[in-house]
Amino acid sequence: MVDARRWSAVESQEDVVVIGGGAGGLNAALILARARRRVLVVDRGNPRNAPARQVHGFVSRDGTPPGELLAVGRAEVERYGGRIVADEVRAVRRIDIRSGEAESEGGFEVELSDRTVRTRRVIAATGLRDALPDLPGLRERWALDVLHCPYCHGWEVRDRPLGVLGWQPMAVHQALLVRQLSDDVVFFAEVLDDEGRAKLAARGVRIVDADVSGLVVKDDELRGVRLADGTTVARSALFVPPRFVPNDAPLAGLGCERDDSGRLRVDPGGRTSVPGVWAVGNLVEPGALVVTAAAAGAKAALTVNTDLVEEDLRERERV
């Protein structure tokens, strides 16, 4: 908890600090800036989808390169007075400036690399990172021809010989989706139970019961999957379901409630259990597409603005 004596009523502060400048964070900032809120977006500049060539599933923006989408979004936020800084949030701390009253009324201190920003509300849109199997060459091909999402990348590899790395239980579901894209799908069964085996067989997915030792890449293209016995199964693309690790370290000290999976628990508007703190996008919904994250940011912005209006009313009633 921040010492209340460090709070100065004459110092400027933000209405909202948005942590993360992806689709969810920028859409939240856009709506709040248009509502004439003081908004600061803090972004590290290393988006998860940077290796991808295009964004898909976003009506009117389908096929747009991720960097271009974010550049347009940043310009839109700044057009309405929102500010964006390239920095990293190290911690968020609550401020209680009135003894006996709700801590959210005091706001927060957001610690950056070289300064601290005060804000009334926080929206975390920090996304997640993909934990991948330790397979030589896999990360280098990530989002090129080693893929994680059939909806994001499937159309581009349709009708080709495809593979799914069965290194965790979620891979079976992914293989069932990938089969919709091609008649030639191979499941590399590192982890597979009887139920999963039956589903794959019913769907017409070929199962290879062998450990994978690496990838075969030639002329900057995936050509096959190498097995532990030295043989190669020719494939043009390999789907690998990652383990999703939320980037929630900046909120660690706030005591937000978590669900059974360890992710932050939020209501339909993105509100966490800590008054004044919202979380949106892949941070709380690993499977969210870019358009889904943008929608979540919009919804959070609406509820944050309403929350601020209600706080302003309470302040007037006290005068």
Automatic annotation (TrEMBL):
Residues 15-297 form the FAD/NAD(P)-binding domain. Keywords: Flavoprotein, Oxidoreductase. Gene3D superfamilies: FAD/NAD(P)-binding domain. It comes from the Bacteria. InterPro entries: FAD/NAD-bd_sf, FAD/NAD-binding_dom, Ferredoxin-NADP_redctase_2. One of its GO terms (molecular function) is thioredoxin-disulfide reductase (NADPH) activity. It holds the Pfam family Pyr_redox_2. It catalyses: [thioredoxin]-dithiol + NADP(+) = [thioredoxin]-disulfide + NADPH + H(+). This is NAD(P)/FAD-dependent oxidoreductase.
